[in-house]
């Protein structure tokens, strides 16, 4: 939108059609808008790679929004952005390989400075997935009450199974029930901890790929 400074016969500032009006050294002037180049429309190889990675990450994070809202809640407040954008920003920088593909082992679904899981592992049976970890509270009664956060994600089908407030850190085990229709499907798994008062959270740890 352009603004006329001295009526219809005066100079103007802003855009009108394919020209821009502005004042230069006391005189009103106009210049044509630059034409978009074919190269810019198509994008360079690096731009295409960036767009591909962005699309991949956007698609990957969409089913995880409920988990991420908790996992990146504290970080999003510090950075004054949504939890989804905070998660996307971190993982775009840290979890994409040179081809723009997602490296699941580097994906972080919770962000913070709380003590993380020590020696986590996952095993499966007919019930579902059983997560375990070593008690690393070191007789710290405050940390004993931290709650585990666990998640399993069928990336191909975009289905997630998780617990936001699971067993206590001192318990050393938590289970996610997995429905029978996931049999033979690939799930990626992560584990983290959140404090009982929700004022601290750990960086998540990737606990591997499981075929149900």
Q: What is this entry, summarized?
A:
With 212 residues, this protein is α+β, with helices and mostly antiparallel strands. It is built from six helices and eleven strands. The protein is elongated, with a radius of gyration of 25 Å.
- Order of strands, main sheet, comes to 1-2-3-4
Largest sheet: 4 strands, antiparallel
Structural class: alpha+beta
Radius of gyration computed on alpha carbons: 25 Å
Mean of residue pLDDT? 88
Number of strands: 11
* pLDDT < 50 stretches: none
Strand-residue fraction? 25-35%
Question: In whole angstroms, how far apart are the ends?
Answer: 58 Å
Helix content: 10-25%
Q: What spatial form do the alpha-carbon principal axes imply?
A: elongated
Q: What is the N-to-C succession of helices and strands? A: EEEEHHHHHEEHEEEEE
**What is the helix tally?**
6
Can you describe this structure?
The protein is an alpha+beta fold and 212 residues long. The protein is built from 6 helices and 11 strands. The chain has helices spanning 38-42, 45-61, 65-71, 73-79, 83-94, 141-144, and strands at residues 3-4, 12-16, 19-24, 27-32, 118-124, 128-134, 147-154, 159-163, 173-177, 186-194, 205-211. A 4-stranded antiparallel β-sheet has the order 1-2-3-4, with no helix packed on it. A hairpin with a 2-residue loop joins strand 3 and strand 4. Helix 2 packs across helix 5 (83-94) and helix 4 crosses helix 5 (83-94). It is elongated, with a radius of gyration of 25 Å. The mean pLDDT is 88.
């Amino acid at each position: 939108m352009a603004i006329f400074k001295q009526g219809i016969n005066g100079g103007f500032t802003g855009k009108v059609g394919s020209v821009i009006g502005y004042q230069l050294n006391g005189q009103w002037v106009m210049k044509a808008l630059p034409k978009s180049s074919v190269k810019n429309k198509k994008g360079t190889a690096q731009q295409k790679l960036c767009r591909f990675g962005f699309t991949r990450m956007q698609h990957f994070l969409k089913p995880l929004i409920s988990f991420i809202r908790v996992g990146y809640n504290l970080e999003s407040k510090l950075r004054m952005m949504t939890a989804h954008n905070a998660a996307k920003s971190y993982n775009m920088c840290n979890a994409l390989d040179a081809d723009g593909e997602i490296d699941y082992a580097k994906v972080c679904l919770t962000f913070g400075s709380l003590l993380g899981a020590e020696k986590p592992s996952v095993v499966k049976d007919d019930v579902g997935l059983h997560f375990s970890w070593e008690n690393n509270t070191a007789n710290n009664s405050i940390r004993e009450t931290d709650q585990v956060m666990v998640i399993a994600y069928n990336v191909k089908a975009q289905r997630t199974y998780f617990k936001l407030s699971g067993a206590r850190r001192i318990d050393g085990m938590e289970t996610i029930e997995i429905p029978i229709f996931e049999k033979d499907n690939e799930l990626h798994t992560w584990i983290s901890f959140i404090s009982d008062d929700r004022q601290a959270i750990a960086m998540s740890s990737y606990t591997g790929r499981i075929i149900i």
